[in-house]
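re: that chain from earlier
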Amino acid sequence: MAENDSGRDFHDAEDPRLSALDERLREARVQEAARSGVKVDTDRGYSQGNRVISALIGSLVGSALIGWCIDRWFGTTPWGLIVLLFLGIAVAFRQIIRIGNERPE
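^ sequence. v structure.
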């Protein structure tokens, strides 16, 4: 152990002081917003991130499944899957750009 080392391993556990500070800062922001009359949406970033992930995964999985089914029915292996995967990627990026460009309320 180093001479100036406190002996705590900061990589394994979260520091309760930092958690308390985060909570106090969050409460202060909410109180300031209430005092100034500004509405604060604390879960907006979280919900927007979930929408991005679901758009990406849903588009890719859905297009891959449809492409695989087309390949099975018409015997065009692997072209239906490849074409629809690229279309799914394009749709996913378009949805992500639309989500990112939404105006805040």
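Helices lie at 16-36, 44-74, 79-100.
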